[in-house]
Amino acid sequence: MSAPKAVSVAGVAAAKACTVNPLKMSQPLGAALAFLGIDRSMPVFHGSQGCTAFGLVLFVRHFRESIPLQTTAMNEVTTILGGGENIEKALLNIHKRAMPAFIGIASTGLTETKGDDVAGDLRRIVAAHPELAMPIVYVSTPDYEGAFQDGWAKAVKGVVESLAQPAATVKGQVNILPGCHLTPGDIIELREIVADFGLDAIVLPDLSGSLDGHVPEDFSPTSLGGTAVADIARTGASEATIAIGEHMRPAARALTERAGVPARVFASLTGLAAADDLFAWLSAFSGRPVPQKYRRQRSQLVDAMLDAHFYFGAKRVAIGAEPDLLWALGAWLKEMGCTLAAAITTTHSPVLAYLAAEGARVGDLEDLEAQARGCDLLITHSHGRQAARRLGVPFLRMGLPTFDRLGAAHRVIVGYRGTRDLVFEVGNVFLAHDRAPQKSGAAADAGDPMGAFSLEERPACLEACHDHDSATEGYWL
Questions:
Q1: Distance between CA 251 and CA 231 in Å, rounded?
Q2: Residue 215 — φ and ψ, nearest 5°?
Q3: Are 176 and 194 in contact (CB under 8 A)?
Q4: CATH 3.40.50.1980 placement within the chain
Q5: pLDDT digits 0-9 by tens, 40-73
Q6: φ/ψ (deg, to 5) at 122
Q7: Cα–Cα distance, 91 to 98 (Å, whole number)
Q8: For domain 173-291, is the CATH number 3.40.50.1980?
Q9: pTM for this structure?
């Protein structure tokens, strides 16, 4: 990271007592997605059916895949009397119907408020039912605190503490702990990079195996791939751990404490400097020079930055995202010459103290909209599209959920190749809107199909051109 920029506590804290237009997603959702990166897994929400239904719809809309997600189906009576019996029924039913290799349980605000002793209930249930021989990991993820990346981080740490086993070091084996802001496409790219240095990677959790959008050969009621339980146990034999994102530091530290595996945390893998840091570390660790294809990719990225910097310079950008995605995008945009006019995030993180932004703080989409006035670009997930339309600001969808565009799971923004493609994607948005407005009374531009109309006469066009990303063609303003 660069030298820290002093940020006062008031600068990063929420400025109001309630959320008006939510930006963040809850901890249980983050934990459930992490559990989905384990092969033959079944995530379970310990809460009401409504909590699970909401999470299921959100994941299905984003990934456009079948999502296995179960619930303990708490109701008014069981919430008051305790949910141990509901957990037992849910586990036995899941074992009978789905035969998973792993079950991950995430609490919700309902059961956390009641104060259920889930860990104690699990010990009793497993002792009474030896047929429940698969690993069962429980994490406390109340949705009234923290955010999506906190739940993901807790789930990965819980899996490591429960399943990783100390063992003799296997030369050339490394662990990769990807943050929740990495897509399945990012994980595929990262695995290929590591393999090209002669290293064998165990990815935990591995969404590229379960949610990469493939057509399965047969139906499965559990996750369709990911990190095998046996491979999780082998993480303790790795030579090193690569963690991506500050929120993965606790999981990396837990693996170091449990099995003695040294760890390196990369704050980001997006941008020239960040990618250089990764490749330099891999080269030094493996004892191999950087392969020629990546030298070529670096050259392509530098050329892309040279081509695009005219359109990035002095642009004002507003971002709303989870802290580590905010850091990755914000640091890269600063590298390209942009100004961060607004940086709204979902939960507290050490990276906020390093982010050079005019207003980095925890907030919601209402705060983002207020600070994004006059910006050249707004970046957040699909729930920000109405704010972008109201502001008349170009809009780029990034993060989860992205439900009104295709291919979100396959977008790649890590490494030289991913950063190069991101330069082109964002640069094209700037290019599409980098036309000076017509002076009053001036002749219409013959090349502009809407140039002969006043702003009042083309409301439909305005709505169409302000709600887009780089996949949309025909920008008229």
A1: 16
A2: -95, 115
A3: yes
A4: 27-145, 173-291, 296-466
A5: 999 999 998 888 998 999 999 999 999 999 999 9
A6: -65, -40
A7: 10
A8: yes
A9: 0.87
